[in-house]
Amino acid sequence: MYELSLNDKGMTFKELEKRIYKYACDEACNALKSILEFLDEKLLNERDSKVYRNKGRKQTCLRTIMGNVEYSRRIYEFKLEDGKKATKYLLDEYLGMSTLGNVSINLVETILTNVTEVSFRKTSENIKTMCNQDISAQGVWNIVQTLGEKIKSDVIDTVVAKLPLTVFQANKESNKCKVYKCNSAQIPYSGAAATLGRKIVRDLCGLKSFSDISYS
Question: Using one digit for the tens of pLDDT, what is the confidence trace for 137-150?
Answer without folding.
Answer: 999 999 988 888 88
